[in-house]
């Protein structure tokens, strides 16, 4: 072999040695990398992040504020029961009157004259009856004559009683102690029968009238305490109680009228003033969820729950009354259900869920949840 051939052969051997060393190093590095990958545990994909609350039934007493108006429950309209000219009418709107106090007097001259005539007729009929009785004892008068005399006396007595009643009707007195709210005639006016002259109201009958929903009515009753605020008198609330619950509901809004009376009627309270009444219902077992957990679509209201397998499930519900930031669930879920309250964006039926936090308790630590995840949840 020539010198040149020997040099080429040596160079080829050197190149093969370098390649072999490189391949060996690569295999060792691959083994090391493969060992590290085999030792690292596989990372499980995390579920959809949500916050939840566990539902439970609890006795709840609710407060309801209803607008209303002050009304006088006892109001009497006084009418003329006889015709005649008004001779006396000295009371005005706002005047307080006592029970039995004379309010109106009509002229009665004609009636008194008729009364005197009837009294004279009555006296004569009594004499005639006595005379016929004496004659009948001597058989000088028939029984028919005696019967006619008795009938005439009875008619005269009836006429006298009728005139006495009519004469009393010319004087109108207060049927109870109260306040004059209307004066519709003046002295000297000639009035006919059934003409309204005055309106008398009992100030102690002042009460608040409010309208209450049919959902609340089953949980209140007569005698329940209430508080009344009169806007015209400031922010003070006055103690009261439910006096009467009307038996019928309005077909327009399904509400019934409720009357509330004051324990002590405040100074300055007047009929027609706007009021706000606070009613407290009796404690009732209710299933409540946060209002934000309630969803709505074209099929109606529903909530998302986390089932036993940790998956999302859609539950249609029927709701009752709303209490502050919570709403009552009447149908659809039971006590103990885990209801989703946040994290609705991207949620779907059967999707795996991961609880980040519980609204009704301390945070639950999960390896995949971070504070930044909670802050970014819808």
From TrEMBL:
Cite the residue spans of the region called Disordered.
Answer: 358-378
Q: Which Gene3D superfamilies match?
A: 2.40.30.170, 2.40.420.20, 2.40.50.100, Helix hairpin bin
The UniProt entry, under PROSITE patterns, shows:
PROKAR_LIPOPROTEIN
Establish whether keyword Coiled coil is in the entry. Answer: yes
Q: Which residues form the Multidrug resistance protein MdtA-like C-terminal permuted SH3 domain?
A: 287-343
User: In what residue span(s) does the CzcB-like barrel-sandwich hybrid domain sit?
Assistant: 76-202
Q: Which InterPro entries match?
A: Beta-barrel_RND_2, BSH_CzcB-like, MdtA-like_C, RND_pump_MFP
Asked if Coiled coil is a keyword of the record, the answer is: yes
Keywords (A to Z) from UniProt: Coiled coil, Signal
Q: What Pfam families does the annotation carry?
A: Beta-barrel_RND_2 (PF25954), BSH_CzcB (PF25973), RND-MFP_C (PF25967)
Q: Where is the signal peptide?
A: 1-30
What are the coiled-coil residue ranges? 146-173
Residue intervals of the CusB-like beta-barrel domain:
209-282
Give the UniProt family note: Belongs to the membrane fusion protein (MFP) (TC 8.A.1) family.
This one is known as Efflux transporter periplasmic adaptor subunit
Give the originating organism: Thiohalocapsa halophila
């Amino acid at each position: 072999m020539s010198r040149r051939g020997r040099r080429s052969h040596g160079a080829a051997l050197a190149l093969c040695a370098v390649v072999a060393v490189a391949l060996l190093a690569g295999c060792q590095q691959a083994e090391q990398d493969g060992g590290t990958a085999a030792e690292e545990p596989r990372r499980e994909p995390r579920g959809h992040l949500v916050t939840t609350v566990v539902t439970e039934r609890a006795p709840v007493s609710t407060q309801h504020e209803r607008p209303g108006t002050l009304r006088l429950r006892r109001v009497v309209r006084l009418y003329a029961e006889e015709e005649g000219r008004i001779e006396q009418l000295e009371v005005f709107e706002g005047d307080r009157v006592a029970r039995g106090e004379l309010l109106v007097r009509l002229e009665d001259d004609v009636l008194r004259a008729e009364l005197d005539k009837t009294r004279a007729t009555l006296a004569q009929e009594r004499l005639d009856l006595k005379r016929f009785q004496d004659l009948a004892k001597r058989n000088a008068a028939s029984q028919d004559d005696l019967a006619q005399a008795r009938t005439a006396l009875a008619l005269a007595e009836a006429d006298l009683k009728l005139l006495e009643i009519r004469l009393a009707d010319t004087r109108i007195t207060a049927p109870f102690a109260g306040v004059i709210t209307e004066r519709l005639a003046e002295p000297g006016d000639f009035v006919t029968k059934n003409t309204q002259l005055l309106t008398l109201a009992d100030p102690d009958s002042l009460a608040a009238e409010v309208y209450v929903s049919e959902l609340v009515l089953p949980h209140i009753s007569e005698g329940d305490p209430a508080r009344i605020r009169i806007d015209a008198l400031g922010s003070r609330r006055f103690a009261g109680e439910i006096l009467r619950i009307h038996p019928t509901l309005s077909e327009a809004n399904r509400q019934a009228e409720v009357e509330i009376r004051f324990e002590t009627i405040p100074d300055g309270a007047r009929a027609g003033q706007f009021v706000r009444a606070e009613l407290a219902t009796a404690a009732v077992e209710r299933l409540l969820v946060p209002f934000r957990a309630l969803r709505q679509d074209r099929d109606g209201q529903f909530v998302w729950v986390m089932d036993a397998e940790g998956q999302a499930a859609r539950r249609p519900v029927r709701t009752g009354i709303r209490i502050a930031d919570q709403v009552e669930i009447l149908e659809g879920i039971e006590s103990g259900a885990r209801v989703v309250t946040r994290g609705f964006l991207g949620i779907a039926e059967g999707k795996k869920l991961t609880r980040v936090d519980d609204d009704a308790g301390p945070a639950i630590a999960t390896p995949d949840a971070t504070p930044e995840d909670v802050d970014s949840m819808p």
